[in-house]
Amino acid sequence: METITDRDIEKVKALKKMKNNALGLLGVAVLLFLIAIYFKIPILQAFSEAAMVGGIADWFAVVALFRHPMGIPIWHTAIIPTKKNEIGENLGSFVSEEFLNREKLEIKLDEFNFASKASDWLSQKENANKVANVVAINIIPGILNAIKDEDIKRFIQVQFRERLEGINFGDWVAVALEPLQKGDLKNQMLTNLLEVMSGELRNNKDLIRQKVKASTPFLSFGLADKSITEGVFNGLQDFLDEAKNPESTVRLKIDEYIFNFLEKVKNSEEMRIKINDIILGFVGKKEVQDYINGIWDEIKLSITTDLEKGDDSSIKNSIAGLIQTFGNGIKEDHVMFEKINSFIKNDLLAVLLNNKKVIGDLISSTVKSWDGKEVSEKLELEIGKDLQYIRINGTLVGGFIGLVIYGVEQLYHFVF
User: Fold this and answer.
1) pLDDT tens digit string along 267-288?
2) Are 400 and 48 in contact (CB under 8 A)?
3) Domain boundaries, the chain
4) C-beta separation of 275 from 170 below 8 A
């Protein structure tokens, strides 16, 4: 059921008032007729008779448009509800043939200058804020509510994995490690690493003793713990000290191992596949997946929180700024200016002309789908007030015509 607005109520009141005015004027004509008969006033009788005929005839004509007069199904009355389908077809044909005409449309589109009006409107801060408000209040939250979080998270995961699978991490590792084969960088890094390992060994001597003690037989009563610990510690320390020397055998073997490893990374497809598998396997871990899923949650929360700030929303203000910039840009860019107008004129014109029959059929089918009584009531509400002037004019004009006829009749009797 449609909601009755205050405007509809005002229209009903105005229509009722005009109907009462027209009926009241007809009532005056009837009263004058009775007075004329009673007091035998021929001129007043002629005026009132013609006024009543004119008023009643025009009342019949006006009412016949919308319904059967007094509910009597007289032929060719209730024209709008009974001829609704024919009216729809004629209206659709009229619009498609008369309005959707190439010459007329081209003139109107040239006169409209859409680019100029759009740029002027969008470049105003107030209008840019209106559009930004619509986007920030309705469109963005609507999109966020419409899309499913699971779908977005799945999409991000699939895209993230596809992008990683498209990367050859073996090449990246090879390129990153290539400088280690040249110059003193490798030696310096290895020396620093050995220094760190040597320091950690010294700092954890007690831990080594505890591990050795836990591993020696119980019956030794701890007599071998100290000597074993010293042997392990000194052996490791000597190994690290020797490895620090770039000319030592240990260091040369370490260098050879690193060289062979880098060569495999650079030249072995099997090694590159292993590196890729290790990285992709890491991406597949639950912790990483949870982190990726959290990206969308953080983005959505950030957007929602910002939009709740209203006029202080950075997203809304950024949109408004972009709209203003776009509006000003159209004014300054004559090429864009012409392209927009050309698009509106050519493309829109082509769409309208190619679909003129469809538009006409749409109008026709839409009118046909309306309820006849409802259409009649709506039209009467819109134009019925003005149509009551026909009744008023019919009453007055009829009366004056009656006077004219009476005058001609009297002149005729006077002359002849």
Assistant:
1) 777 777 777 777 777 777 777 7
2) no
3) 6-82+371-415, 158-284
4) yes
